[in-house]
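Folding follows sequence. Below is one example:
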Amino acid sequence: MDGTHDIALRPFAPRDLAQCTDVEQAVYGSGAYSTYFFRQLHDLNPALVWIAEDRRTGKIVGHLCAAIGQGGEVGWILNTAVLAHYRRQGIGRLLLERGVAELRAAQVRRMLVTSEPENVAAIRLYERLGFRAVRTEADYYGDGYERLILECDIEGE
């Protein structure tokens, strides 16, 4: 089922802080980014923070955060979150496509994203968008768990 016709993507705005943080908490629990993170990321580059909003209810149901580092050459998809009830409807794909498009528009040379190695669905989605697994890093967030690093080389396309 593809429920994306009921979803609007739009740039994050400061008025979204509370709802965005609620989505983050619901998806990531103790590993969730804070309200401060969303606000500061928005202040640094508002084109790289996106919201998925249910058109019927006006409720924020997901978001994507991206960033540019290393002298403007490397873009990161930092975070994608979609509420459980709204998953498997293409919303994560829409958010990721928007994030990739914005990083391309910023003319980064390559993009990176991390994933839990067991998250096969996310890895397949990243691969469909041109990412490939390049390494696994142990204790990536200092929590004892490893993360798969995926990369999309834009220059090599």
Summary: The CA atoms of residues 2 and 89 lie 4 Å apart. The longest strand covers residues 60-69.
